[in-house]
Here is the input.
Amino acid sequence: MKQNRRWGDGPPRTSARAKPGSWLDGLGRMASAIRSILQEIFDESAYQRFLERNGLQSSPSAYARFRQENEQAKSRRPKCC
Amino acid sequence: MITAFMPRALRVVVWIAVSLLGAFALATIALHRGEQINALWLVVAAVSTYAVGYRFYSGFLSAKVLALDPLRATPAERLDNGRDFIPTNKWVVFGHHFAAIAGPGPLVGPVLAAQFGYLPGTLWIIAGAVFGGCVQDFVILLFSTRRDGKSLTEMAKSEIGRIGGVVAYVAVLSIIVILLGATALIVVNALKSSPWGTFTIAMTMPIAVLMGVYLRRLRPGRVLEASLLGFVLVIAAIFGGQWVTNTPSWAALFTLTAPTLAILIIIYGFAASALPVWLLLAPRDYLSTFVKLGTISLLAVGLVVLRPSLHMPPLTRFADGNGPVFAGTIFPFAFITIACGAISGFHSLISSGTTPKLIRRETETRLVGYGGMLAESMVAIMAMIAASVLQPGVYFAVNSPAGIVGKAPEAAAATISAWGFEVTAAQMATLAHAVGEQTLFNRTGGAPAFAVGMAQIFSSTLGGQAVMALWYHFAVMFEALFILTIIDAGTRVGRFMLQDALGHIWKPLGRTSWYPSILATSAVVVAAWGNFLWQGVKDPLGGINSLWPLFGICNQLLATVALCVATTIIVKMSCANRGQHKSASLGYVFVTLVPLGWLVAVTFTASWHKILDPNPRVGFLAHATQLAKAGADSRLVFNDRLDAAVTAVLVGMVATILIESALECTKIISGSKSARTEESPFVMTRLTAEEQA
Here is the structure.
């Protein structure tokens, strides 16, 4: 199950201790969803996808390559008013 | 939604209760006269209307008009490359989309429109979002998703015609230029003669470089960590700003005039576009997003917890069009002043940009497109509240230009009091001292008024008057940081667009790596928006009076283009499906045709006023004539004539796309042209039921 998950897949089940459907489970899922959203907004997910796609480990040089690729796409996107 | 798990009868009761609550709240804010009302009434009215709008109207659009198909594979699934096209969880796309559409517009527009009172703006924000903005964002997102993530310009070209494509291109470039000029002016007005604010913003540069080093060398890719670190340092810089203000030698260094700040911002914009300054820009962008999301969340929680009262009346005397913040009557000017919180053409660029490439299921466009805009609209309601909690006298003292109320504090206070909004020079001096500024008079642009409102809301319980200055400068920093990232990103986007166009004339100019082209196109884009900024700085009426309406007209004209594209596509869909689906009805075209008709009425009327109105405070040409007769600087006269020409050209171009779109629709309805849309062919989704959940 875990191996099939991908970046951007959203909130996984939070904890084996939280009963599915309980408020604790719901709270955990919400926290997990917020984390996923923030990771996408702040390009952490994009970096992970970059590492997976290129079979790289996280390192200063890998991040520099990611930034170069990412910036080319990002610099053409307008920021809204 | 929660109600999906309820029995049908209970669901009906819940929705009736929500509808009644919304109607009661709307009636309360509309009919209450003479007494202050609590800000929560605005929140309840908005949230209830949004809930009903989302549940029923967007449901109708999804099921009937657009016929969202859960079995149709989206481009994110079909073209998945792990880079641009990525099937992504709907909540993640929602957050990403919201972060992309939320800018300073929904904060500044409502603050400026509050000069009419809180009622016109609030009603427009709520109704405009539910029936206009959300519909635009939703349909453009879906249509782009069904066309492999095509941009608005590409869709205009393929669905309407070549002219449509050219008009959309020019409209996009124009809005970027005018947006940058207008927002840069907001920063200048917020930071002029403010050593505290200027120091804090200056400090974000070394902080961003530090974040860049952290990201590149110490913890590669840990952006959230780096942003948190940057945020802590920015807070420290705000405290440092207080020390700078209280240290005369440092305060003198950071006390800058409006022209000096304008020149610095122009240099910054050019450097950001032409130089490889990744180490500064990318971390600052992250920091700005972090602060933006945090501040919006904080403000939302603060309003609900603190429940402040609104001091602004529902309607002010300035409904007659003689307002000091900007001149013009409620119709059409309230509707172009508030764009982003109600309907914003700029959103159609985001809805046809990154977002359609992330959509996993067609059905999720409803949450992302319609729901994302509702969230943005809620931000505008919060801004309206922040402006309306101020005493009206204070609001007008901050937002009125010296050209209207006079430069001397006593004269300005007397003028504003004569309007019926009591304020004294001593009261303003005390407030300025409390927020750590030399003066709060004539701080036009909306940002300082929003910052004072936000500071008042928070300081009433969290720390009291002692920390009011910190809250104020936190709000100013948040807005200025936010706008500066828009300036650097916008200049680069404008430069790329210009290079793309010039590449058709001479190929080397289109090469984005050729330095002479980079320098030349960056200079052209910066000169274009820098001209508007300079014009605003030198304008005796404060600049916002002419620039913000121009920006609003431009933004709404872009929305007109987007709704033209959407209407044409819906006509084609309806005619193509006639005979195949009983549900296909040409009447559905009204979902985009009605907001389109409204926007045409608003933008064309506003443009007419801005060009030809005989009142010099409204009409550009009348103002130019007045200045010429008074022997004013010829540059000021030229600026007004330029604004009039820009408005006329834009309106002319949008009229062209309207006519082209109407002709195309007429041909299709009459059957003289086949109703063929440019959708990608249907491919069955391969996503499993588990992935769909």
